């Protein structure tokens, strides 16, 4: 069951975050002919100890958000405040100090671990960059502790990544993410490359570690079913924007945005009775190019409810007018002019 969200000050506040990648033409004289609007005005909070799930189809900007949070990219505009301080344009020592507290676990445990390094060197690598985190003489013991914490045999410290299964490799990636004792871990599709049976084990491990170390997670996935158990809150992204966001209950039980409803309708339902009642919403067409997003509501080219207003007026991410007087889980942020609850968007 999702825990109650923490009411303390957010540990991370993201405001109007934008990342446009320039599109250029010409070889010698590069001329900018446009921009890929990978992230185009994203705002959210992350509270201490909570998990925010970020979900959306391929190319909607999830990894770009992750890279911006990790300061691996500089935003075109907008702010990322960590404990109140804008960290989006830090450099040098100040950036290094913040980086210690914000770590990342990557999608593909097959390519994200250097095949020529032992797991001991991989997990201990962050200590090379932050030697103050562990004196040299203590590192081996620390790495063995980390192996134990993630459920691997500490005696396997001298093995190489290819000697481990996919799930075990992701445990190595998680151990590396924990090495500096961070407060926040950005998880960019950490289980997508794993078999479904192994996915659950890795997610359970991450939940246990979160409780043990008081971690806050941003957990990225392209499927709402993956983040269902781990998320306290969920943000649904489409073409560089968040289109609906709310608590676990608000998003899974009372989605009001057509895109979220379509994503939920595609999630496998284990209960046959519930399966019979639900209507599968098939989205037509492809995701438009982020270099040339549709006017007004970006989802309108695939939305079965689109009307003329949708092409003219960009719906804000706010509690829709229809629900502003309402109480309870239906009154949450949804960027749709015609937001409504839909019956039978069962999700098991
Ligand atoms: N360095 C870059 N230069 C130009 N375009 C980029 C760059 N990085 C990402 N993009 C583009 O930005 C958009 C968003 O990419 P991003 O990787 O953030 O999406 P994603 O949601 O993580 O997708 P996936 O689910 O496939 O991982 C895509 O259209 C991508 O091609
Ligand atoms: S604003 Fe219009 S096009 Fe966009 S999701 Fe709502 S109904 Fe569909
Ligand atoms: Mg990605």
Automatic annotation (TrEMBL):
<keyword id="KW-0813">Transport</keyword>
<dbReference type="GO" id="GO:0055085">
    <property type="term" value="P:transmembrane transport"/>
</dbReference>
<dbReference type="InterPro" id="IPR017871">
    <property type="entry name" value="ABC_transporter-like_CS"/>
</dbReference>
<dbReference type="InterPro" id="IPR003593">
    <property type="entry name" value="AAA+_ATPase"/>
</dbReference>
<comment type="similarity">
    <text>Belongs to the ABC transporter superfamily.</text>
</comment>
<keyword id="KW-0067">ATP-binding</keyword>
<dbReference type="Pfam" id="PF00005">
    <property type="entry name" value="ABC_tran"/>
</dbReference>
<dbReference type="GO" id="GO:0016887">
    <property type="term" value="F:ATP hydrolysis activity"/>
</dbReference>
<dbReference type="GO" id="GO:0005524">
    <property type="term" value="F:ATP binding"/>
</dbReference>
<dbReference type="Pfam" id="PF08352">
    <property type="entry name" value="oligo_HPY"/>
</dbReference>
<keyword id="KW-0547">Nucleotide-binding</keyword>
<dbReference type="InterPro" id="IPR050319">
    <property type="entry name" value="ABC_transp_ATP-bind"/>
</dbReference>
<dbReference type="GO" id="GO:0015833">
    <property type="term" value="P:peptide transport"/>
</dbReference>
<dbReference type="InterPro" id="IPR003439">
    <property type="entry name" value="ABC_transporter-like_ATP-bd"/>
</dbReference>
<protein>
    <submittedName>
        <fullName>Oligopeptide transport system ATP-binding protein</fullName>
    </submittedName>
</protein>
<feature type="domain" description="ABC transporter">
    <location>
        <begin position="12"/>
        <end position="264"/>
    </location>
</feature>
<dbReference type="InterPro" id="IPR013563">
    <property type="entry name" value="Oligopep_ABC_C"/>
</dbReference>
<dbReference type="InterPro" id="IPR027417">
    <property type="entry name" value="P-loop_NTPase"/>
</dbReference>
């Amino acid at each position: 069951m999702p825990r109650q969200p923490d009411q303390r000050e957010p540990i991370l506040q993201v405001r109007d975050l934008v990342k446009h990648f320039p599109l250029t033409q010409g070889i010698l004289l590069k001329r900018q002919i446009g921009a890929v609007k990978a992230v185009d005005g994203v705002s959210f909070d992350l509270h201490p100890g909570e998990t925010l799930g970020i979900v959306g189809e391929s190319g909607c900007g999830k990894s770009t958000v992750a890279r911006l949070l990790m300061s691996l990219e500089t935003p075109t505009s907008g702010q990322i405040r960590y404990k109140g301080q804008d960290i989006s344009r830090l450099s040098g020592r100040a950036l290094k100090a913040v980086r210690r507290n914000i770590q990342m676990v990557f999608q593909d445990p097959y390519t994200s671990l250097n095949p020529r390094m032992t797991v001991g060197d991989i997990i201990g690598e962050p200590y090379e960059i932050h030697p103050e985190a562990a004196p040299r003489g203590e590192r081996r013991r620390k790495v063995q502790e980390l192996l134990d914490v993630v459920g691997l045999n500490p005696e396997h410290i001298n093995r190489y990544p290819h000697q481990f299964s996919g799930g075990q490799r992701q445990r190595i990636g998680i151990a590396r993410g924990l090495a500096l004792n961070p407060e926040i871990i950005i998880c960019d599709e950490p289980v997508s490359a794993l078999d479904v049976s192994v996915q659950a084990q890795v997610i359970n491990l991450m939940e246990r570690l979160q409780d043990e170390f008081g971690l806050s997670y941003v957990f990225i996935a392209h499927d709402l079913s993956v983040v269902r158990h781990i998320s306290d809150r969920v943000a649904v992204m489409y073409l560089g924007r968040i289109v609906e966001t709310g608590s676990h209950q608000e998003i899974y039980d009372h989605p009001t945005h057509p895109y979220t409803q379509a994503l939920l309708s595609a999630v496998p339902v284990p209960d046959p009775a519930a399966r019979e009642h639900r209507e599968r919403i098939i989205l037509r067409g492809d995701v438009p190019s982020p270099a040339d997003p549709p006017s007004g509501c970006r989802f309108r080219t695939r939305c079965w409810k689109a009307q003329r207003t949708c092409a003219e007026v960009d719906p804000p991410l706010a509690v829709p007018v229809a629900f502003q007087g309402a109480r309870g889980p239906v009154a949450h942020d949804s960027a749709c002019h015609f937001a409504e609850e839909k019956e039978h968007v069962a999700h098991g």
